[in-house]
Amino acid sequence: MIYSIRLRYCLVSLLFVSVPHVVLSGELEQTIARSYEIRLIGDMQMNISNTKQHIKTETALAYTWRGNSNKRQLYYDSFWVKALNGTQTIMDVYRDASKIVVVNKGKEDEVLYKDSPEDLRAEFDDSFRSPLATIALDDNGKVIERTNIGKPGAQALVQSGAISNALIFHPPFYGNKDSWTSPNEFSVGQNKTMKGDLAYSKVRVENGLQVVKVTGTFSEENINLEGSPITLTKAMYKISGEQSYNLVKQEWVAGKMLIKVTLEMGAGGKVIGNSAGTIDITFKQLPKTP
After folding, report:
1. What is the pLDDT of residues 160-169, one digit of tens each?
2. CATH number at residue 154
3. Which of 79, 112, 150, 192 is 20 to 30 A (C-alpha) from 159?
């Protein structure tokens, strides 16, 4: 039954609509409410225990930052993921505050919030009607404090990388510098991330947008995935792309990144496979805020 589906089963670990009126928790004054979408297209060749797999994924994440220029809260608006192994669809799930839609062998099953049992309603509410995180920012937009405030029903979403994904394209911007570096991170699922510094260099101004080149290489020797016997080893992400900063709004409004991925997988102290491929990410500010 579709009622047994929980958000933790709706996520592809290695690759990566509207919300009704919400009230900011605490005393955070709402002066900014801006919505964004990230779309990730993964194309990975895997060899696990001498079995080759070609995994393709497409994920769309819509989220909103609400607050002011120095303190904001993160809300998720919708989530969709589709995954294929070769030509076979192994996952096709959409969720927002009002429904879950699962497509299986061409058949679409839908569960509406109003028809859901109490425990599933709690996941709806915690994931899409309540904030997941609070961040404090300096005057350049650099995150100086980050707190996970997600409720219990949202923890599967948080552990899948929801907060990290919503920060990828929101580094600080320095009006008085031509180049700078800033820490960033990319989720690999199961509450784990690849971390490192990205380099940002101004390249041109187009229609009031400052275009910035983005480059960097992240590497991790060992990543122990929570709840899994598998360890990722010799993982490397080579990142390149561009982002556009609106000089009037003082916000990042568009971007794209290509990540070239290589890694090995181990279990019981032995290498059991490897994987290589790409993750193509696009980012845009949405015209309307839920």
Report:
1. 899 999 999 9
2. 2.30.230
3. 112
In whole angstroms, give the CA distance from residue 60 to residue 282: 10
State how many domains the chain has.
Answer: 1
Is the Cβ–Cβ distance between 2 and 102 less than 8 Å? yes
Q: Which two tokens stand for residue 13?
A: 């670990």
- Give yes or no for a contact between 129 and 77, defined as CB atoms under 8 angstroms apart: no
Cα 123 to chain center, whole Å? 18
Find the mean pLDDT for residues 245-255: 95
State pTM to two decimals.
0.88
Residue with the two structure tokens 């505050």: 97
Structure tokens given for 126? 């915690």
The residue among 163 and 226 whose pLDDT is bigger is 163
CA–CA separation, 3 and 19 (whole Å): 21
Residue with tokens 């983005």: 214
Residue 290, domain member (yes or no): no
Expressed as residue numbers, the domain containing 82 is 2-285
Q: pLDDT tens across 252-282, in order?
A: 999 999 999 999 999 888 999 999 999 999 9
For strand 143-148 and strand 99-104, is the pairing parallel, antiparallel, or unpaired?
Answer: unpaired
Query: In which residue are the tokens 């819509």 written?
Result: 62
DSSP H helices in 235-286 = none
**How many C-beta neighbours within 10 Å does residue 188 have?**
23
